[in-house]
């Protein structure tokens, strides 16, 4: 094989630069809690980068440093593009970003979902990102409406039973 196509370890301890993480093409709406989480993550990454740079003579810190720097670039880009959506005063007349929605599925099983920004999403905790198919199905619905949620296993109907401020 031609030597031009091989990568040999030259013993260099120059810091690596990892490719940036992909940024969503969707508007970056954030709740107050989501914005605070991003700010906290940025602060934690800055602290970690400072710690890792302090140990720069240790080659074992080069990759973790590159990961932390890449992650900080991502968080800073998300903070720069964040559109804070504050909850409305009073009741929610229909499902909006930041609202918690109580639903019943076709079998009568209850569930609650809170529509949040992509970086705050945690489906296991009922926090769903606004661009998700479930959030898109719920947005603008009112109590009593039945919405159709397209899933890979087929369409699911959900009845909106309550809309409230996220806790």
From TrEMBL:
Listed Pfam families: GreA_GreB (PF01272)
Keyword Transmembrane: no
TM regions (residue ranges): none
Bias (Basic and acidic residues): 1-10
InterPro entries in alphabetical order: GreA/GreB_C_sf, Tscrpt_elong_fac_GreA/B_C, Tscrpt_elong_fac_GreA/B_fam
Molecular-function annotations in GO: DNA binding; RNA polymerase binding; translation elongation factor activity
GO biological process: DNA-templated transcription elongation; regulation of DNA-templated transcription elongation
Keywords: Elongation factor, Protein biosynthesis
Domain Transcription elongation factor GreA/GreB C-terminal: 94-164
Region Disordered: start-end pairs: 1-32
Keyword Protein biosynthesis: yes
Entry-linked PANTHER family: TRANSCRIPTION ELONGATION FACTOR GREA, TRANSCRIPTION ELONGATION FACTOR GREB
Name by which UniProt lists this protein: Transcription elongation factor, GreA/GreB family
Highest classification ranks of the organism: Bacteria, Pseudomonadati, Pseudomonadota, Alphaproteobacteria, Rhodobacterales
